[in-house]
Design a protein that fits this description.
Layout: E1 18-24, E2 29-36, H1 38-46, H2 51-70, E3 76-82, E4 89-95, E5 99-105, H3 118-122, E6 126-133, E7 143-150, H4 156-166, E8 172-180, E9 188-197, H5 206-223, H6 228-233, H7 236-243, E10 249-251, E11 255-256, E12 258-259, H8 265-273, H9 277-287, E13 290-293, E14 300-303, H10 305-314
Length: 320
Amino acid sequence: MSNPPSSVSSSPFRAADILHRFSFSGTPVHGQWVRLESVLSEFRQRQDYPAPVADLLGQMLAAVAMVSEGIQFDGAVSLQSRSTGPLTTVLAECREGDKLRGIARWPEDSRPPQGSTLRQLLGAGRLTITMTRPAAREGDQPFSYQGLIELSGDNLAQDLDRYFANSEQLPTHFFFAADGSFAADGSQTLTGLLLQRLPSDDLASEVTLEADERAWQSLQDQASRLDLRKLATLSAEAFLAGAFADQSITLHPPRALEFNCSCSRERSSNTLRSLPREEILGLLEERGSINVTCEICGASYDYEAFDIHLLLEAGDDTVH
């Protein structure tokens, strides 16, 4: 893109949940732009999340999607809390680069109040970032990585910035902006933006190294003046063209994202098979049927008496 704003090429691709990679020409800096809408609606249909909890979960989902895309990771990237605050659990996960799921839990008698900040929700806790990938072929070793994100800033973006700068040695800036209301039937979009300084070329001269650092500092200065209201409402093309009008930017083809849980009736059946036969039959006698609900997505799997007896007969060798 030689002349702004046409320097960001437009795309006919349209989706409710979408992620773009982009890069700055001649500068070792890249970024991600993500917008979530239908994924948020899925959560809204499954549980009545207080607004601050919904906002945090949406930001975490945007973050794992951008991190996964940034490193081209085909396993699972997750953020999960270790909290001393009113939120006992908050988890966001991106699998295979495009499948998102998440959950937040709190005690029934202490619903997080409106207006709660990140520190009020999680207390003196921390977030764990985890990356896992099963062995692709027999004999391969599975991959697993875990890092701890200290919660010391005013918001999630600041804590993620600090983690990547200190632990990963990759200067990074996260931005999040919401448009609309997550509550009731109101629609909401959550937009995330990531800017990351990549290492300069190993053979780069001192002149090139200094130029790369000046370019990064200039982009940081521009980023500090970003209008998050525009981030929340404009398309990736329009926002980047306006926010970095003097830069040559390559906007890569988009990736569609979706809400997708790994639960299934087969997995719920395996869970039941792992229970003692007497316990299963006791539940059946007490309730007349057994319901298994996924804690992540809320999907419900019902088992009538006939289903349970078939399950037990098929699993005689494994149920005890």
